[in-house]
Each structure stands twice: as structure tokens, then as C-alpha cells.
TrEMBL record:
Gene that produces this protein: Vigan.06G157900
Keyword Zinc: no
Signal sequence bounds: none
Any GO molecular function: electron-transferring-flavoprotein dehydrogenase activity
One Pfam match: Pyr_redox_2
Record-linked SUPFAM superfamilies: FAD/NAD(P)-binding domain
Recorded family membership: Belongs to the FAD-dependent oxidoreductase family.
Known role: Putative FAD-dependent oxidoreductase.
InterPro entries named among the record's database cross-references: FAD/NAD-bd_sf, FAD/NAD-binding_dom
Stated name of the protein: FAD/NAD(P)-binding domain-containing protein
Record keywords: FAD, Flavoprotein, Oxidoreductase
Entry GO terms, CC: cytoplasm
Residue ranges of domain FAD/NAD(P)-binding in the record: 7-275
């Protein structure tokens, strides 16, 4: 009977949380709590800025893949041993909790508002002759690549505070990305910050920390987003966060010492680089482990998650990419063939039980 089924509450409907919600919806009473009504593929957002129609396939309403779960569109703001509290005042009881709140990002609540936002950003790019990108991590590099390939006549300037690009992976990948961007006439300025204090809309002169001035028609902030765990600091999990605000988990992905709370994705302290495909693998481990507990099997049937070596592909426009593999770092069309054409969108849609493309009625 429905009321006898265990209640599994998942916080965050991103890359990791959506997998758990979808996989468990017929095994438990599942509630997904997400601050927005839709799932989005984060690494496809840069393409959606240069080609807004791309987002039609990458923004997926939670209801489209969750046919047998409750969906609560609100932020989780507190948890107790038995309940989740949301910003809109709801109290949601749980038997098992999965925290997958990833990165704190203020994006619109509805899919249509998010589509409008991409259209707006696209207009901004199209109407500018020169564009300043602030930040040389994966977001800044991928956006610079998208604009340089789709709008080769625009002047693109990328400013990064560090001494090299792509600091989340090895130096070779950063150097190769720099070489590629330069070959596309992107001006890259390292070791300086753009001063945005007192910056007003319509202003076109930017000043940097070393006194340089840069002229650009518009700018995009591409800095890494903080983890969405600050809200846990005054909860029962306050002692389960490390000094960087990451949730400490054991090898079964349970929050240390707790039998019924799991954490997955970018927010954990697992010693590996934060990647969506790893977040999905962690989600699969939690799905298995929750099924083991829910169906009363022995704990030895639970799966263990092992950290992975640093593999990453950063796309450089539509056909090329730079890839860091275990013993090799390459740029060009081979890694581009893997990621840059469709940005894993078709694959992600299929994993969610959806068609590769949108089927129009
Ligand atoms: C430019 C770029 C390129 C990338 N390329 C790749 C790639 O090629 N391959 C790859 O595997 N990974 C890639 N990544 C990394 C990948 O996007 C992340 O590792 C992945 O999204 C992490 O998944 P997550 O579920 O932990 O968090 P997210 O996907 O960020 O999801 C978090 C969810 O939680 C929600 N949320 C946050 N706070 C709350 C709250 N308090 N209450 C309720 N809901 C909340 C958010 O709305 C969101 O839906 C890339 C990232 C970037 C920025």
C-alpha cells in the first residue's frame, strides 16, 4: 500500500538528484525538492547563449521524467532528523534523505523564463561588437569558444585572475586551451581581475587590478559558483561539513555516521574533480543502496563508491575540445567529436527516458 512505502526525499533536481528521483519513483514514495520546476544540463548553457533554441532540449520539466513522484518547487532551508523545511513554509517528512544541491545559482523558477533568459543573453551577444568574459575556468573558456566560433567577427577578451586557464585540471590542458583561444583571436589576459565596483550599465570601459583599461560593449561573469550547502550550517548536519563547506560522506555515500541521509554530486568531500558524469555514478550507487535498505536486504549488499582520476573534456566551440585523460591531454576534433557537437544532450535525455529530440505534438 502507498502509505506503507518508505518516504525518500531528494533535495536538488540537478544532474545527480534527478537520477535518484527517476530511478526510485516506483520503489518508494519519492518527493523531489528543487528550487526550479525543471532540470537543466549545466554544460549546455553556454551553447544556449549563442543558440537559444538549443535550450529547448536541455531544459526539461521535472514532470516530464517524474510520473510517479511529488515535486516541490521551493528551496530547502533546514532539515531535522525527520523533516525538511522549505522556503515556502512546507514541512516534508522523510524516512531517507538524499542531498544533491550542487551549486548555488539564482536561475528562474520556470522553464519559459529560463528560455527567455537565454534569448536575452543571445541578443546581448549579437548586438555587441566586443565582449568581455570574466573568468578563465570551464564556463569562461567554453563561452569564449562558443562566441569565437559562432561570431568570429566579434572581439572577445577573456580576463582571468589566475596564472593559467582551467585551473581545475592540469596545466597542459590550460595551455592547450590558451593556444586554441589565441588561434581564434580571443585576447586572454591572465593574473588580473576586472574591477566591477561602481560599474554601471552602459559603461564600456573596464579597469583591471593591474591598472589596464579594457573597452567592451558588454560583459559576462563566468566565475565558479559556490556550493549550495551554506543553508546546512545551522542544521543537524552542521558538524558534517568540512572547512570548505563540503558534506563529509562515507564510502557508501551516507553522511558520516548516519544511516538514512546520503549526499551526492558536487557538494561532497569525495577527493575527485567535480563532474556531472561522476555525480551520476554516485547517484546510481545511492539508488542501489537505498533499494537494499528499503527492501530489507543485508548491508553487505550495499555498493561502495571509489573516487576516480581527473578526466574532463572542455569544449572549444562546436567541433573541438581539450580533453584531460589519465595519461594524455589532447585538443582538437577527437575530443570535440565526443562532447562538442551535441554536448551529451541526446544521451542525457535518453537516460531520463525521453526521446533524443523533442517530439512536437
Ligand atoms: C561550463 C561547465 C562545463 C561542464 N562540463 C561537464 C562535462 O562535460 N561533463 C561532466 O560530467 N560535467 C561537466 N560539468 C560539471 C557538472 O555540471 C557538475 O559536476 C554537475 O552539474 C553536478 O551535479 P549536481 O547534481 O551535484 O549539481 P547541479 O547539477 O548543480 O544541481 C543542483 C540542483 O540543486 C538545486 N538546488 C540548489 N540549492 C537548493 C536548495 N537549497 N533546495 C532545493 N534545491 C536546490 C539547483 O536548483 C539544482 O537543480 C561542467 C560544469 C560547467 C560549469
Amino acid at each position: 500500500m502507498e502509505k506503507d512505502r518508505k518516504r525518500v526525499v531528494i533535495l536538488g533536481g540537478g544532474v545527480a538528484g534527478s537520477v535518484v528521483a527517476r530511478s526510485l519513483q516506483f520503489h518508494a514514495r519519492v518527493t523531489l525538492v528543487d528550487s526550479k520546476e525543471y532540470f537543466e544540463i549545466p554544460w549546455a548553457n553556454l551553447r544556449s547563449m549563442v543558440e537559444p533554441s538549443f535550450a529547448e532540449r536541455t531544459l526539461i520539466n521535472h514532470r516530464d521524467y517524474l510520473t510517479n513522484a511529488d515535486i516541490v518547487t521551493s528551496e530547502a532551508v533546514n532539515i531535522t532528523e525527520t523533516e525538511v523545511l522549505t522556503a515556502d513554509g512546507r514541512r516534508i517528512g522523510y524516512d531517507y534523505l538524499v542531498i544533491a544541491t550542487g551549486r548555488a545559482d539564482s536561475v528562474p523558477k520556470t522553464r519559459s523564463e529560463r528560455l527567455n533568459q537565454f534569448n536575452e543573453e543571445n541578443r546581448k551577444i549579437k548586438s555587441a561588437r566586443s565582449i568581455l568574459i570574466i573568468g578563465g575556468g570551464p564556463t569562461g573558456v567554453e563561452l569564449a569558444g562558443e562566441i569565437a566560433v559562432d561570431f568570429p567577427d566579434k572581439k572577445v577578451i577573456l580576463v582571468h585572475k589566475g596564472s593559467r586557464l582551467l585551473e581545475f585540471i592540469g596545466a597542459k590542458a590550460g595551455h592547450k586551451a590558451l593556444k586554441w583561444l589565441k588561434s581564434k583571436n580571443v585576447v586572454v589576459k591572465l593574473d588580473q581581475r576586472v574591477n566591477l565596483n561602481g560599474f554601471t550599465d552602459g559603461q564600456k570601459i573596464y579597469r583591471t587590478s593591474i591598472g589596464e583599461t579594457i573597452e567592451a560593449d558588454c560583459h559576462f561573469l563566468c566565475m565558479g559558483k559556490p556550493l549550495s550547502t551554506a543553508w546546512l550550517k545551522e542544521t543537524v548536519l552542521e558538524n558534517d561539513l568540512d572547512s570548505q563547506g563540503r558534506i563529509k560522506v562515507d564510502e557508501k555515500l551516507r553522511v558520516n555516521g548516519r544511516g538514512n541521509i546520503f549526499a551526492i554530486g558536487d557538494i561532497t568531500n569525495i577527493p575527485e574533480i567535480k563532474q556531472g558524469f561522476l555525480a551520476q555514478q554516485q547517484a546510481e550507487v545511492v539508488v542501489n543502496n537505498l533499494k537494499v535498505i528499503i527492501h530489507g536486504a543485508r548491508e553487505c549488499k550495499m555498493e561502495t563508491y571509489k573516487p576516480h582520476s581527473a578526466i574532463a573534456i572542455v569544449s572549444l566551440g562546436r567541433k573541438e575540445a581539450v580533453a584531460q585523460l589519465p595519461f594524455w591531454t589532447i585538443t582538437g576534433r577527437i575530443p570535440g567529436f565526443i562532447k562538442s557537437g551535441d554536448l551529451f544532450v541526446g544521451r542525457t535525455r535518453r537516460q531520463m527516458g525521453l526521446s533524443y529530440d523533442i517530439v512536437k505534438a
